[in-house]
Amino acid sequence: MRQTHRSGRDMSQLLADFGHDLPTAAPHAPATKEARLFRHAAQRGPRKTGRGWMPASAPVVPYRMTSDQAPVFWPFIAGPGLPPTGAQMGIDVLSGSAFHFDPIGLVLRDDIPVTNANVMCFGKPGTGKSGTTKAFCLRMVDFGYRILILGDPKDEYERLCHFLGVEPFVLGPGRPARINPLGLGPLAEGWAQLSAQEARNRAAIVFSRWLTLMRALIGSQRIGAERVPFGPSEEAVIKAAADKLLTDNEAPLNIRYLARVTNPGKYSATFVAALAARLADEVCETITKSTTKREGLMREYLLKLKQARRVDGMGRATQPPADGSWNDARQ
């Protein structure tokens, strides 16, 4: 005969018989495991059809490499392209590190393959080109940079100049500012204390600038529809004329003659004849009361003047200028 085991009532059932229910706890949800990203694979692959099983193991060879070499095989790893020198300009989007920039400092360093300090800023309107440029100028002042703004058509750099305590030059019709293209500028400082070699070097720079200016001014002129030619011959003439502009006087220089000759015996014969004809023309009508004679003397004066110019244009041996600091600089 089989006996069955009957268990008694527990406390919760006993209280339930008398109308009392114990509070019940919420059942615990079974813990779920996260899906595995990678599953173990046998060295030769799973032994199933079409699952990549191979009878022999692959010849895998381990390699070790530095972080400079790793981007070749794993291109998402990148280090900072430039060293942290100069002003901080932003974030390197490849490495996430701070981006510093010092164009001149990069050129001076031998361990960085940068040979040109020129920088050009491109971008669509409104993308921050001017703001980036002004921020770069403002921050690089602390590193000893000197900023030169050649033109500001939109008045974008005026507030930057005022912040740095610099009053910009405003050029235009009715403006008081002027630019003297023939001025020596800082090259004139301490000229009297320069040695002969240093004076020659500065003079060469000055005359080179003047020659460039004259080339631009003459070449921009027109005679009718044709431009005024300025070739090697014209350049040689201008250069020879500039070499004769020797003076140690301070600006402004009002050049009205090349030399003052006080000895009449040094006058050329053609000049004397032209001068005499001109003087006769001036006093002829007062003395003779005849306009016909004056007209004749005027024609004679113009003829003598033409002959004097022709003779003078044939060229004569030039006299060397007097010794002086400017003359020594041009030797």
Give short descriptive properties of this protein.
two-stranded antiparallel ribbon, single chain, elongated, mainly alpha, 331 residues
What does this structure look like?
With 331 residues, this protein is mostly helical. Helix content is 36%, strand content 4%. It has 10 helices and 4 strands; from the N terminus they run ααββααααββαααα. Strands 1-2 form a two-stranded antiparallel sheet. A hairpin with a 2-residue loop joins β3 (222-223) and β4. It is elongated and about 165 Å long. It starts with 10 loop residues before the first helix and ends with a helix.
Helix share bin = 25-40%
Count of separate DSSP helical elements: 10
Q: Low-confidence runs (pLDDT<50, min 5 residues)? A: none
Q: Strand arrangement, largest sheet?
A: 1-2
Secondary-structure element string: HHEEHHHHEEHHHH
- Give a short account of the largest sheet: 2 strands, antiparallel
Please give the alpha-carbon distance between the first and last residues. Answer: 143 Å
Radius of gyration: 47 Å
Average of per-residue pLDDT values: 77
Give the strand content. Answer: under 5%
Q: In terms of structural class, how would the helical and strand content be classed?
A: mainly alpha
Number of strands: 4
Query: Any idea what the shape is?
Result: elongated
Concise synopsis of the structure shown:
The chain is mainly alpha-helical and 331 residues long. Helices cover 36% and strands 4% of the residues. The chain has helices spanning 11-17, 70-73, 103-108, 129-140, 158-163, 196-219, 232-243, 269-288, 291-313, 325-329, and strands at residues 87-91, 98-101, 222-223, 226-227.
